[in-house]
Structure formats: structure tokens, C-alpha cells
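sry for the spam today, last one i promise. C-alpha cells for design, 137 residues
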């Protein structure tokens, strides 16, 4: 039996990639850490803000591959001989992923007061009208 999805509808030609995108988004493996906000700052501008207290810019990496934006963080667990009586602030690694639309591009990233800000811009699509000539067979 074939798996039926919305992209298999006969009027939706070429939308198989959308099916794969939905599957990939479901498999990002985000566990809720670090918490984040997504805000719209203008009609075509967005900002993702991640709460990354304790991380330095050198502890993190941001990559964009196949429209998937991935933020990774890993702190060095060097105790410098310190003895903790209680350790509630864990030096843990994380990976947070976001799938971006084709027209969304990353314009920059900055860090301020334990918050990582990733700026995004959505390009306006070009309106293209194409006339197809009909030839005799």
C-alpha cells in the first residue's frame, strides 16, 4: 500500500519536496533547549532570539545547509579546580534547527546579554508572466 500524502494530489505537481520538508522538520530533534523567540520586525524581516546564557560566541556555530538553519553550542567543561557544592547551571551542548523558506536569507547574527539574535530577510518574489506558444503537431 502506498503512503498517501497531500503532495500526491494530481493538481499539486512538483510538490514532493514539500512533503520531504515536512518530514525533515519533524525530525529536527529539538528538545526545548535553548528556549527561543521568533519575531517579525518588519513586513520582510524576522529575528530568531535564543537564550544562551553562559555561552560565548566562540562556543557556538550557525550553519545553513539545504535551507536548514542550525545553531549548535558546546561549552568547554573546564572546572579550573573548582569544587561545586551544587551545580545547577550545566555546561551542556545543544542543537536547535529551523527550516527556512526558499526566499528567506540570513542577514547576520549578534550576541547581547546572553541572547543570540539571528536576523532574517524574506526576499520579495518576482511576478513573472510567461506566454506559452502553441505549435501545430
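last one done:
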Amino acid at each position: 500500500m502506498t503512503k498517501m500524502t497531500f503532495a500526491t494530489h494530481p493538481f499539486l505537481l512538483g510538490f514532493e519536496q514539500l512533503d520531504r520538508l515536512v518530514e525533515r522538520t519533524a525530525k529536527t530533534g529539538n528538545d526545548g533547549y535553548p528556549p527561543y523567540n521568533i519575531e517579525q520586525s518588519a513586513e520582510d524581516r524576522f529575528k530568531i532570539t535564543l537564550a544562551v546564557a553562559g555561552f560565548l560566541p566562540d562556543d557556538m556555530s550557525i550553519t545553513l545547509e539545504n535551507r536548514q538553519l542550525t545553531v549548535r553550542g558546546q561549552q568547554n567543561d573546564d572546572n579550573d579546580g573548582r569544587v561545586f557544592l551544587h551545580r545547577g547551571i550545566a555546561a551542556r551542548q545543544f542543537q536547535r534547527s529551523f527550516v527556512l523558506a526558499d526566499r528567506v536569507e540570513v542577514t547576520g547574527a549578534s550576541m547581547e546579554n546572553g541572547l543570540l539574535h539571528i536576523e532574517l530577510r524574506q526576499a520579495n518574489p518576482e511576478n513573472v508572466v510567461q506566454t506559452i506558444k502553441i505549435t501545430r503537431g
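The longest helix spans residues 16-26. ok im logging off now
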